[in-house]
Amino acid sequence: MFNTLRFATYASLLTLGGFASSASAAELKVVASFSIIADFAKNVGGDRVEISTLVGPDGDAHVYEPRPADAAALEGADVVLVNGLQFEGFMSRLIEASGTKASVVEVTKGIEPLKSAEEEHEAVEKTEAGHDHEEAGHDHGHEGHHHGEFDPHAWQSIHNAEIYVKNIADAFCEADKAGCATYTANSEAYIARLGKLETEVKAAIEAIPADKRTVITSHDAFGYFEHEYGLRFIAPEGISTEAEASAADVAKLIDQVKHDKASAIFLENITNPRLIEQISTETGIRIGGTLYSDALSGREGPASNYIDMFRYNVNTMQAAILGS
Ligand SMILES: [Zn+2]
């Protein structure tokens, strides 16, 4: 399936991406499932690691279709970093197909996962509907979905990002003992920067009046942000972008907005703007900009690393709410 021509294409992509020049110097070949984990890995690994990213800037890992090059990258990897919590639906099949011997590390290990709101909602519906409904195989139209019991977007809490970074440092130490002192020092320095970022974020949220803290995004990507920092997010789509919002979901959200008085509405960099544009038109709430939910921006964008992403999201929300 992965013929030599495809391997050649992969090699030239690496060259174009600027990875090949450092390949000989790197001690560890690392595959990161998506851009945010890749940024953490770069901060921990520095020059000792060569990183390939499967789902790149502005990419949507929920619905990602792997390419042959991805299997080739996995096959040659020493360490594979994944979010877990069923964020990367494509990953287990890809790992199996690649035959990789790399250690596969779930970087959310040790966080306190939040239950997916959708899951709680379904549990209530099932209780109300009783057993007959379930026996009839009624599945709320959710057949074929891969998202799970927990909200996977744990990186939207800076405290969790610190856990991601520690797990990455541990994984690198395990795979490259000679570099462990470097990985530990790099991760400590980066975690100190995250601590400063968190102080900044909390101050920015405190500056928003309590009655203006409800905002709308397109999917439920900000549950951990809400839990940690106290803004309230509502969205027509659930914790995965896999299922498009139905007309009923949108109507329900518009109805909810009339009661809850959302202060701002935002596009997301990974999703189609159409739905948010429609809700903006129907509610009269002006679009306050784009939030980076599940991916970084490209290098030239405003959110090309995690710290910039977080700062940009908070500044964008604060400006939209206070300006409204
Ligand atoms: Zn998401």
Automatic annotation (TrEMBL):
User: Which intervals carry biased composition (Basic and acidic residues)?
Assistant: 115-151
> Any keyword Signal?
yes
**What is the residue range of the signal peptide feature?**
1-25
* Principal location: other
- Superkingdom of the source species: Bacteria
Q: Does the keyword Transport apply?
A: yes
Where are the annotated segments for Disordered?
Answer: 113-151
InterPro entries xrefs = AdhesinB (IPR006129), AztC-like (IPR047701), Bact_metal-bind_prot9 (IPR050492), Lipoprotein_PsaA-like (IPR006128), ZnuA-like (IPR006127)
Record's keyword terms, sorted: Metal-binding, Signal, Transport
Q: Which cellular compartments is it found in?
A: Cell envelope
Q: Which family does it belong to?
A: Belongs to the bacterial solute-binding protein 9 family.
Report what the protein is called: Metal ABC transporter substrate-binding protein
